[in-house]
Structure formats: structure tokens, C-alpha cells
Specification:
About 30% of the residues lie in helices and about 20% in strands. By secondary structure, the chain is an alpha/beta fold. It has 2 domains: about 210 residues, Rossmann fold; about 80 residues, no CATH class. Strands 6-7-8-3-9-10-12-11 form an 8-stranded mixed β-sheet, sandwiched between helices. A 4-stranded antiparallel β-sheet has the order 2-1-4-5, with helices on one face.
Length: about 325
């Protein structure tokens, strides 16, 4: 792997719910992101994707575990330094923009805060707007004068303004019209072709992640259940949950016949107290799965899976 720019080690997050209830939103997630690479994170609603994003960018402190950026513990970095290195782009593009601020002012604010391009801010703002293919005429617009896709481009420009090493994109296309999703994806790919930048691309939709990612991690109930290269996870999925997700991705050609029956992807019920979290939905469940939770292990060439049956089939268990 290229130089590792971000490493998450056993990250966990617990939230106090109402009354005495506790939500274990994240339960020991470890990950690595290479320089200039894209890690796609996929999983259904509530599996902890946004929680992971908030921990990685330092908006929240983990209840356990830690993260490192280029070898330095993120908790040892002050907020400003951390923000120079890692930026978060949210699902709702308007949420990161002040409705009373024109685009130029929104971008200028970031440059001023970080003392970047002092005296040449306007030129840099034009450059940033060009980078996100908006054009300079958008500099005078207010957020309400932007479409969702245009507002997301401004949010991306704002993130890029600090020249970060990493951008975490939390469902950046989910709130947008289907017609503009591909444009945003292509824009992100185009930017990465021009500058050295790493992405963490989060989505509940495998079809979005597949276009951008070099490596993919599949999350289920606060844990990674499978990870590996694009080809390993998408073309040769091992975990039954990944198989179900992959089959739920629409096949554009109606003449394509799916090899297996489509397993509906249901909403997760909650972590089990014992054994594998996926046991109640799993078509491969065995008695052993009800007793012992499978660990995430490498089955070869960095393809990792947390499933007893899959591991036995690849003969590592
Ligand atoms: N601040 C919080 N306080 C209490 N519970 C929380 C908090 N934030 C998240 N949760 C809970 O943690 C779990 C994970 O939430 P999270 O938002 O990370 O999931 P997600 O994968 O991003 O979901 P979605 O696809 O819907 O965005 C959920 O059960 C959620 O209700
Ligand atoms: Mg989320």
C-alpha cells in the first residue's frame, strides 16, 4: 500500500440513549487509508457510518480506540491543524453553508481562518470554483440561489480550500437528484486525478461506492464485516451480508440474469448478545455462529471477512 495517511485503530463509540439505554454505534473499527487512495464505506442506515466520519475528522472523541494521521495521533492535534489535514463533506450541502453568506465570502472565510493565500484570496477563490467546475460567476450567489448539486460543489470547494490530505464524504450524493449524482462522482474522480488527495467515501449504496473506491469496507451494526480491494469485495464477496448488498445493486441490463435469488436487505434488528450479529438474517447460519462472534480476519491478499462459514470455505478456519 502507498504511504498510510490515516489509520483508525479499534474505534468505538457509545451514546447514552434515553433512560438507561446505551447505543454502541461503533464497536471496534480499524481501517487504513493510503495516500491518494479512496476507501469506500458502505452499510445500511444506522450501522455507524456517520459516527465513524465524525470520529475520524475529530468532531467527536471516541469512547475507545484512536486514530492517526500520517503517524500522529489525531487527538494530539489542535482543531485548526486537524482541519487543515482532514475535511468532512456532509450529505446536505446547505448544512455547511451560511444562508446569509455569498459563495465568495464562504470561501474567503476558510482562507482567512487558515492564513492561506493572503492578499491573493480572490484569485484562489476563482481557482477553487474552477476546480469544482462551477465558474466564477457563482461567487456572488447566495446558497438559496444554488441547486443542490451546485451547493454540494461549493461545499467541496470549501473542503478543498485548505488543501487537505483527506476528505471524508458522508453520503455526498444521497440528497441530490439522481441526474446530478454521477456529475458529483465524476467531479471527485477528476479532482483526484489532478491533485494528491485521499477520500473516504461513505454511502449506503454500493453502486455509488463502486465507481470511486480502490478499497471497500462493508459495515454492519457498528463493525466492519468485510473489507478488501474493489475486485475482492464486489466481484468475489465472501460475507453473506455483502453478497446480499451486491445483489441489491440494480443491474442495468434487463437481460442479465442474477445467479442467486435476491435476498432482501432488511433493517438491522440490533446487536446480538452472543455470537454473530448477522445470525438472524444469515442464509448460511450454523450452530457455532450462535455462540461465537467471528473476528475480521485476512483470508489472503488483504481480503478480510468476519464470517465463520466464509473463512472455512477459504480454509483459514
Ligand atoms: N448523538 C447520538 N446520540 C445517540 N445515539 C446516536 C447519536 N448519533 C448516532 N446515534 C445512533 O448510533 C447509531 C449509528 O448512527 P449513524 O448516524 O452513525 O449511522 P449511519 O450509518 O450514518 O446511518 P445513516 O445511513 O442513516 O446516515 C444509530 O443507532 C444512531 O441512532
Ligand atoms: Mg449517516
Amino acid at each position: 500500500m502507498a504511504t498510510v495517511v490515516l489509520r483508525g485503530m479499534d474505534l468505538a463509540q457509545r451514546y447514552e440513549g434515553r433512560g438507561k439505554s446505551v447505543v454502541n454505534a461503533l464497536r471496534g473499527v480499524s481501517l487504513e487509508l493510503g495516500e491518494g487512495a479512496t476507501l469506500g464505506i458502505v452499510g445500511e442506515s444506522g450501522c455507524g457510518k456517520s459516527t465513524l466520519a465524525r470520529l475520524l475528522v475529530g468532531l467527536e472523541r471516541p469512547s475507545a480506540g484512536s486514530a492517526e494521521m500520517s503517524g500522529e495521533s489525531t487527538s494530539s492535534l489542535d482543531g485548526r491543524t486537524r482541519a487543515r489535514r482532514i475535511q468532512l463533506v456532509f450529505q446536505d450541502p446547505y448544512s455547511s453553508l451560511d444562508p446569509r453568506q455569498r459563495v465568495r465570502a464562504a470561501l474567503r472565510e476558510v482562507l482567512t481562518f487558515h492564513h492561506l493565500h493572503s492578499g491573493a484570496e480572490d484569485q484562489r477563490i476563482d481557482e477553487l470554483l474552477d476546480m469544482v467546475a462551477l465558474g466564477r460567476r457563482f461567487a456572488n450567489r447566495y446558497p438559496h440561489e444554488l441547486s443542490g448539486g451546485q451547493a454540494q460543489r461549493v461545499a467541496i470547494a470549501r473542503a478543498l480550500a485548505v488543501e487537505p490530505t483527506i476528505v471524508v464524504l458522508d453520503e455526498p450524493t444521497s440528497a441530490l437528484d439522481v441526474s446530478v449524482r454521477a456529475e458529483i462522482i465524476n467531479l471527485l474522480i477528476g479532482i483526484q486525478a489532478r491533485i494528491t488527495i485521499s477520500y473516504i467515501f461513505i454511502s449506503h449504496d454500493l453502486s455509488m461506492v463502486r465507481h470511486v473506491s480502490d478499497t471497500i469496507a462493508v459495515m454492519y451494526l457498528g463493525r466492519i464485516v468485510e473489507s478488501g480491494s474493489y475486485d475482492q469485495v464486489l466481484d468475489a464477496p465472501l460475507h453473506p451480508y455483502t453478497v446480499a448488498l451486491a445483489q441489491a445493486v440494480p443491474v442495468p441490463d434487463p437481460t442479465v440474469v442474477r445467479p442467486h435469488r435476491v435476498t432482501p436487505v432488511l433493517t438491522a434488528t440490533g446487536p446480538t448478545t452472543r455470537g454473530c450479529d448477522y445470525q438472524d438474517r444469515c442464509p448460511l447460519v450454523e450452530p457455532h455462529c450462535r455462540d461465537v462472534a467471528p473476528s475480521l480476519d485476512d483470508v489472503g491478499s488483504n481480503h478480510r471477512v468476519a464470517c465463520h462459514v466464509a473463512k472455512r470455505r477459504t480454509t483459514i478456519e
